Amino acid sequence: MKMGLVGYAGTGKSTVFEWLTGEKPDPSKVQQGQTAMADVPDERLAKIAAVIRPKKTTYTKVAVLDTPGLTAGGDQKDNARRLGVIREANGMVVVLDGFTRTDFADQLRRFREECLFADLEIVGNRLTKLEAQLKKKARPAKEVEADEAEKALLLRINGALEGGKPASSLGLTPEEEKTVRSFTLLTLKPEIVFVNRGDSGFNDPLPADLLGLAPTAVQAPVKLETELLAMPEDDRATFMVDYGVTEFRRGATIRAMFYGVGRNVFFTVGEDECRTWSIPAGCAATEAAGCIHKDLEEKFVRANVIGYDDFVACGYSEKEAKAKGLNRTEGKTYVVKDADVMHILASS
Fold it and tell me: May I ask the CATH architecture of the domain 1-41+60-262?
């Protein structure tokens, strides 16, 4: 899974990138974007590992893509080109300037307008090509029918975009989303809003006008946290008190990014390794098995499942869960729940 950091130049995107991934921004990759990995922390797995003491504990990861900053009040076509870098990502983290400005809602509105314009260009170009194709004669009826259906869908999307609404507002069916998937429309991507705070105000509630636009928005004093983490432990504790920092928010931000694009995890546990696996929310057991290895999906027989709360209640013991009848056998269509403890059984 890949999340793209997006926003205007000067919002501190690259500082956020380094804070999340530990990777220094590379100036040579500014225009094409830079990607690095970040572990998705999970206290539940940490608690499991503390009891089981495996040889290895592995957290699922999220790829973070730093993209070129947009120019405020600049050329919309150039900004659309810069936004093109983000189209490969599964979702967007919109970084807002919270260290020199307080107009968060206005910043977000303007960024969303840039996305609308960028998508309008994509849709408009495709409609022009479809119009030309539909004028051609002696084409198979099925091709003409498919082009007409696509044109009707794109006209709906175009109308929404021109009306200032994202493509996501149309409630497209899975089949319709499949039709436009190759266009990687920005306004269909999940969006997380992140306010990059300075060394004050980060404990204040986010303003109501921003939460009205982005109810799940999060904030953190990125530069301050980075500086505090670089200090010796004794000095850090003192400065944390001075600045009113009660906790570091990096982990919570990464989790907000991960879950904000509709992901869940399941756990595999054992003496060799305890691990989280990333899955789409609502996926079936076979698809979850495929996240471990394609062979497990193709040769899936059943899954032994313990709900996380049941696992905790049994002292993190699979043996105890089995004795209490809490270790269930589930088939191919079982919908995996977040934090399920699973063992996949497959045919040889």
Answer: 3-Layer(aba) Sandwich (3.40)
